[in-house]
Amino acid sequence: MTSEKDISLHDKVLKAFPSADVTEEDLVQNPQFCKLLAQLSEHVDSTGLPKSRRKQLVKAEGDLDCELKKWMRPMITHQLLEEMVQEHVVGKQRCKQTAEDDKFYKTLEQCLLAAKCGVGLQLGDAPCPVLGISAEHLKRAMPSEQDICDMQDRLPKELEKHLKKKANSILGFVQPESEKDSEGLKLKKFNHLPQMLKAERDRIEHLSKENEDLAFKLTRETHNYLNDSLEHMRLLQTLLLENRLKVQTEIDRKKLQYIEAKCRLAVQKIRFQMLEVQLDTYTPSKIATHKKISEHLETDLLASQKEKQDVKNQLDSYEVFGQEFKDLAEEYARLQAEIQAKKLAVQALTNPDAK
After folding, report:
1. What is the total count of domains within the chain?
2. With contact defined as beta carbons under 8 Å apart, do 56 and 48 qualify?
3. What is the separation, in whole angstroms, between the first and last Cα of the chain?
4. Domain residues for 127?
5. Are 57 and 150 contained in the same domain?
6. pLDDT beyond 60 at 246
7. pLDDT tens, position by position, 24-57
8. Considering the domain boundaries, does residue 8 fall inside one?
9. pTM (2 decimals)?
10. CA-to-CA distance for 272 and 265, rounded, in angstroms?
11. 228 and 113 both lie in a single domain
């Protein structure tokens, strides 16, 4: 019988190692192994990594995250600038833009394209070996210095406007009710937007963890339910078998009576059909004919019996003569056989073609 302490220990082990291919039945059948896993769970995490190493790994991941942010910052800025250019191109199709806006975004697009080509082709002092393009070619394709200076002066303001637009969309997604807030309140919420997103992510992770715990409990309850159902089915099967054995004799007796009655009915039907066949076969005229044939046969039988008796009497009279008559009869039979053989030989000589 499994105690509550053992059940809690099993739960602790299964929760500590969710990815391990271990079931509760394995833990029940191997209690020492279960205790070993319970002790091991105090020193390692769910992935099997020691907790001291886990701290080092968390620190390394934090450092890597910082470096990754530094590395991704210029890429994200470049992507935001490209989005601004694309939105301007799309906006031109909907409404007319000013000449200053067109000039600004055209200069920005040329600078971005030149920077992308420089990075993609890895241009330095030497030209590209495949296309023969050098940094001087890109410099000549760039806008004028004045246009670049004007674009750079306006760029922070436009970038801030674009970032504010994206922040509004994210804030509207996280807090739909914030669309009715004032600009000052929205600005305050912008400053707390990373914390809000982190809190939302933590809430989702917490719900995911709770979902995993509920899934674990559901799996356990399902397992217990299936075991109880199997036990109930075995008990029900035992009860059915016992009741069936009790009533089987009465059922067999009823079946036997039914089969006997059915056999008697079949015999009566066969006899009835036989009588029908006899009635169809032996009509009154056929019966009279059979009587005449029977009388004739009886007369012949009596005559045959009388002839038999006469022959027997003659044989009895012959037996009076004894052994001499028997020898004469055998000699007579032998002579008859020789005469018949000589007749056949003479016939064969006189008519050799005869078969």
Report:
1. 4
2. no
3. 107
4. 49-191
5. yes
6. yes
7. 777 777 778 777 777 777 767 666 667 677 777 8
8. no
9. 0.39
10. 10
11. no
Q: Please give the Cα distance from 288 to 28 (Å, whole number).
A: 97
Q: State the pLDDT confidence band at 3, using cuts at 50, 70 and 90.
A: low
Radius of gyration of the chain (CA): 60
CA distance linking residue 353 with residue 74, whole number of Å: 134
Count the alpha carbons within 13 Å of 48 in the hemisphere toward its beta carbon.
3
Which residues are bridge partners to 50 per DSSP?
44
Cα(307)–Cα(261) distance, integer angstroms: 56
From 145, 168, 191, give the residue that closes a domain: 191
Cβ-based burial of 10 (10 A; exposed 0-12, middle 13-18, buried ≥19):
buried
- Residue 97 CB contacts under 8 Å (≥ 6 apart), including other chains: 88, 91
User: Residue 330 burial (CB < 10 Å; 0-12/13-18/19+)?
Assistant: exposed
pLDDT-derived band at 179, boundaries 50, 70, 90? low
CB count, 10 Å around CB of 14?
A: 19
Domain boundary among 257, 281, 305: 281
Cα–Cα distance, 278 to 283 (Å, whole number) = 9
Report, as an integer, the average pLDDT of 259-265: 90
pLDDT digits (tens, 9 = 90+) for 77-100: 888 888 888 888 887 777 777 888
- Is the residue at 30 inside a domain? no
Q: In sequence order, which residues have a C-beta less than 8 Å from that of residue 330 and are 6 or more positions away? A: none
Do 171 and 193 form a contact (C-beta atoms < 8 A)? yes
